[in-house]
Amino acid sequence: MEETSVRQRRARVGLFVLATLLVGTAAVLPFALRSMVKEIAEPPEGQVFTLLSAPGVALAPDHSRLHVSLIDLDEARLRVTLHVSGHHVCADRCTDTERIIFFSHGTTEAATAGMPPSAKVDLITPQAVVAETVTLPISGHPSRYPFDTYQLRLGVALARVLPDGAVRPDSRAGGAGRLWMTIQDLLPREIMSEPATLDPDSAREVDDPYELQVLALLEFERPLHARLLVVLLVVLIAAAAACAVLMARLHDLVISSGALVLGVWGIRNLLTPGTTYRTIVDLALSAVVIFLLGAITVRALQLCYAESDLHLGRRRPEPVSEPTHQHAPPGNECDYADCPNPIASRCVSCRQAFCPRHIDAGPAPRCDSCGPPAEAATATERQPGSRGTDTWTRP
Q: What is the pTM assigned to this prediction?
C-alpha cells in the first residue's frame, strides 16, 4: 500500500507538470505563429527611416543624398556590414570631393584612445555616384541567443577633400543642409527598431577633429517567433528526457540513451545561427544531456547497490532468530499457565500434557509441579538395614 501511494503521488506530480506544459505551449503558440506569418507575408526589406543632419533646415544647392542598407550582421565577430549608395548634387561647378565618415561609437570610449572605428565614402565630383560597402563594429551579447540584442551608435561626419589632397572637416553649422540620408534594415535574422536620434555632442571629445552631423542609435533583436520556438523546443526536449529517465526501464533507457543524446543535441543545429560563441541554448541543452546521463548513472548505481546486498554507512541488520517454540494449534497447547507451546509428553503424576520446557524427559516424565522423576534404581528410598546399600530419600 505504501508503494502504491508513492506511485500515485509521482503520477499526480507528473500529471500537473505535463498539463502545465501543454497549457503554456497552447498559450504561446498563437503569438509565435502570428510572428512567423508576418515575417513570411511581409517583404524582406525593412522600413526606410530618414536621418537628417539638421532638421528644419532646407537642403543646400550643394548636397549629398545617401541610402544606407544594413545587409549583414556577423554575431561571431560583432561586425555589421553597410551598403552605401547615393550621389552628390552640385548646382555649380564643384572642384572639391565630398567625404562622408561613418563612426561606430561604443560604450567604452572614455577608456579608449583616439577616434572611434570609422569608414569613409568619397563622392568624387566627376563621378557624382557612389556604391560602396563598409564594415563597422557593433556591440552586443551573442551568448544570450535568442535573447541577444545588438546596438550600433552610428555617427556621421562631413569633410571636404581639397584638390591638393588636404582634408577640411566641416562643422555642424557648416554642414547643415548638405546631407540627406536614409537607412534601411535588410538583415535576415534580425529586426531593427526605429533609429533614436541622440545628441551629437554626447559622443565628442574636446580634441576630436570631426564634429558629428548626426548621431543615431540603431538596435537589433531577434523576431518573436525565434525566441518562442527556442524556449518551447528546449522545454519540450527537457520534458521528454525527464520522462524517459523516470518512466522507462533501465535496460531500455541505456540502449536508447545514445539516440536521446543525439536528439537533444540536434535541437541546437535547428535553433542556433551557427556562431562561435557559447549561447544560453548550448548551456540549456548541455544541462539536459548532463541530467539525462547523470540520471541513468544514478539509476544504474541504485540497481547495483540493491543487488549487491551491501549495507554501507549503516549497521547490517541482525538476522531474526526463529522462536524456540512455535505456537501450537488450538487444543494442543501446553497445560502450564499461559504457555502456548505445543505439548510433548504427559506427566505420570497429574496426567496433564506439557511442552518440553515444563516437563522432564525420561521413562517417567514429571512436570514442574509434580517434581523431577525418580530413577528406577537410585531414586527409591533405601530402608535402614539394607544389605550394603545406602538409603536415599527423595528431597
A: 0.64
